[in-house]
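// run 5 | inverse folding | seed 20
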């Protein structure tokens, strides 16, 4: 096979890839972001007011966060909060191929709140967080520590990301009012942040997960000025790839279990 044949085979493979990805036509030499509204050049004459965004375009982050706060504040129960999330259109992930909103599972009166990164493909199908391989491993760890029945599990975002990538800070910020409202309604005795993405979003830190894991930090909620003790640990998906790190997570979970039990016992002592 000569060089010309190799080039043709490579081109055909590339075209087949784009065809399978859903691309069926090209209209520009360069990609154009259709979500950005560019105002036309104003003609000479009286000043005109340019719309903040094009009709039908995605809301800005400030607009999305304001709408999320409004919807979250109107939810008096976790069930109502789930309905508010399903109705929320301000998170860009909603329009990126997700089947449904994935809010939470577990005990709505639990003393432990777990916050992960976001739902994956399996969670998108079943409508519950942490139900794939990583979630099953997390359940086994929590069961061994005697905490599964005391746990309420959610994520920083409620729609799966394309390609299972980490959610962006903007996507997490759009959903943050719902996460805070869940914590306000649940009133957990402790919060476990699973993975770097969740830890950074909730604690508003740039520290890496290995630097902050196992440390007790304070998650101060904007609603009501309340706070909850939060501990970060490694994500179970990481443990599936690096099983030698399970000992670190097990230590974090056991420390958390001891703290929870001591806080439960002391008020009635």
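// decoded
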């Amino acid at each position: 096979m000569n060089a010309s044949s190799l080039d043709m085979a490579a081109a055909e493979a590339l075209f087949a890839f784009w065809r399978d990805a859903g691309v069926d036509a090209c209209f520009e030499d360069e990609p154009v972001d259709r979500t950005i509204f560019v105002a036309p050049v104003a003609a000479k004459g009286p000043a005109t007011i340019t719309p903040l965004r094009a009709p039908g375009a995605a809301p800005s982050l400030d607009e999305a966060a304001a709408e999320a706060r409004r919807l979250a504040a109107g939810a008096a129960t976790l069930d109502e909060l789930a309905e508010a999330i399903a109705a929320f259109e301000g998170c860009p992930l909603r329009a990126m191929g997700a089947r449904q909103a994935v809010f939470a599972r577990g005990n709505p009166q639990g003393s432990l709140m777990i916050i992960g990164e976001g739902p994956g493909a399996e969670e998108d199908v079943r409508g519950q967080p942490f139900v794939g391989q990583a979630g099953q491993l997390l359940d086994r760890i929590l069961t061994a520590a005697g905490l599964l029945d005391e746990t309420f599990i959610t994520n920083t975002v409620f729609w799966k990301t394309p390609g299972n990538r980490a959610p962006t800070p903007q996507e997490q910020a759009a959903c943050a009012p719902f996460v805070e409202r869940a914590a306000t309604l649940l009133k957990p005795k402790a919060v476990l942040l699973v993975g770097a993405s969740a830890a950074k979003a909730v604690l508003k830190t740039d520290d890496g997960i290995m630097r902050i894991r196992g440390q007790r930090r304070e998650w101060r909620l904007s609603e009501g000025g309340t706070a909850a003790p939060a501990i970060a640990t490694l994500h179970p998906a990481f443990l599936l790839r690096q099983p030698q790190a399970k000992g670190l997570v097990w230590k974090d979970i056991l420390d958390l279990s001891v703290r929870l039990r001591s806080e439960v016992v002391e008020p009635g002592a």
